[in-house]
Write a structure and sequence with these properties.
Elements lengths: L1 E5 L4 H12 L3 E5 L8 H10 L4 E3 L6 H10 L2 E6 L6 H6 L1 H22 L4 E6 L23 H20 L2 E7 L1 E3 L18 H9 L6 E4 L11 E2 L1 E3 H17 L6 E7 L5 E2 H12 L5 E4 L14 H7 L7 H18 L6
The structure holds uridine-5'-diphosphate (UDP).
């Protein structure tokens, strides 16, 4: 009995694979290596002492996926495989819809035909847009996301809900807030492929001198210090939530459809400026920055009410922002020792 982890060599995927292996799940990874590198597989093995099965192919290739399902007794899937760059999604909408939705549908075809249940979907708090009140709980009304990337997440949720209802299957839609940090071993983290879009990788590279200055996108928001507020959740905490969500689905004996929805965040909002200051303090480094105009499409504030995950999964965020930011710096040092090529 194995769990298929698509995108299992990616940022959140690799951390989740480690947690699954630590909990004695058998793991089968499919990853096309489009946004990661092979050494992550070796590092997963070094951390856990176990080597998961790995297939390097694009999930749009249904015939290869069918072979994986033929070769293994798959009893669930955690689906991380997706393109995730918000700006790029606006420029290449058809590629984003094709990549993110065709791969999902291919897996669901296999699930449907083989009677498999237990599907965990990487969703995002972008489905809420700029919510009217904080914190955001799971009953907060959804808004049409501004980006194509966000739309693929919302469409993915709808496809999965219809799948669960029509075929009486169990799905869990996990809405992540802002994942940050690296594995405590410093062997896994977010790979610096291209110019980072996200705040923390950019801060990391600025502190390391790879980037000259951090651009802070706007300090005229209606927040305490004028910079935008997000809920930064440590990636290992996030990975553990996937195991808890999977265990809940697998333990459910109901014959009915089950559609779980959980917000995964810390419940605490931090401003861009607070993140920069916390990074400097945690790592005793300097992060030069300049204030720029607001970035198009950015919302002012988003932080989670994650009480439902605590109540139903027994999961909650445990790691502070400072601790998470320390792991980021250790990861940067590891990358430097590896001399991993940083593609500017
Ligand atoms: N941000 C910034 N400079 C950067 C990257 C991000 O000021 O180089 C800000 C961004 O405007 C937002 C916050 O940091 O307010 C988090 O952005 P990120 O892209 O990490 O996540 P988002 O919440 O937008 O998905």
């Amino acid at each position: 009995m194995a769990i298929l982890v698509t995108g299992g060599l990616g940022y959140i995927g690799s951390h989740t694979v480690v947690e699954l292996l630590n909990n004695n799940f058998e793991v089968v990874i499919v990853d096309d290596l489009s946004n990661t590198e092979r050494f992550i597989l070796k590092n997963i093995e070094e951390i856990t002492g176990k080597r998961p099965v790995f297939y390097p192919f694009d999930l749009k290739r249904r015939e290869l996926l069918t072979q994986v399902f033929d070769a293994h007794h798959i009893e669930g899937c955690i689906n991380f495989a997706a393109s995730k760059a918000v700006g790029e999604s606006q420029l290449k909408p058809i590629d984003y819809y094709e990549n993110n939705l065709f791969s999902l549908i291919n897996i669901l075809q296999e699930f449907k035909e083989r009677g498999i249940s237990n599907f965990i979907f990487s969703s995002s708090c972008t489905v809420y847009g700029q919510a009217d009140k904080m914190p955001i709980d799971e009953n907060t009304p959804l808004k049409m996301p501004e980006s194509v990337y966000g739309k693929t997440k919302q469409m993915g949720e709808e496809i999965l809900s219809d799948f669960a209802k029509a075929y009486q299957r169990k799905v869990s839609l996990l809405r992540y807030f802002n994942p940050i940090g690296a594995h405590p071993s410093a062997k896994l983290g977010e790979l610096p492929i291209g110019i980072p879009n996200n705040l923390v990788p950019y801060v990391m590279q600025t502190a390391a001198g790879v980037r000259e200055k951090l651009n802070i996108w706007g300090n005229d928001y209606p927040t305490e210090d004028g910079t935008a507020v997000r809920d930064y959740i440590y990636v290992v905490d996030l990975a553990k939530a996937h195991v808890a969500a999977l265990q809940k689905l697998m333990q459910s004996t109901s014959e009915e459809a089950l559609i779980d929805i959980y917000n995964l965040g810390t419940g605490k909002g931090s401003s861009v400026m607070e993140v920069v200051k916390a990074f400097e303090l945690a790592n005793i480094v300097e992060v030069p920055y300049q204030i720029c105009d607001r970035r198009e499409g950015d919302i002012t504030i988003a932080y989670a009410n994650a009480d439902k995950a605590e109540r139903e999964l027994g999961w909650k965020s445990e790691t502070s922002l400072e601790e998470a930011l320390k792991t980021v710096w250790e990861w940067q040092k590891y990358l430097e020792t590896r001399n991993t090529e940083i593609k500017l």
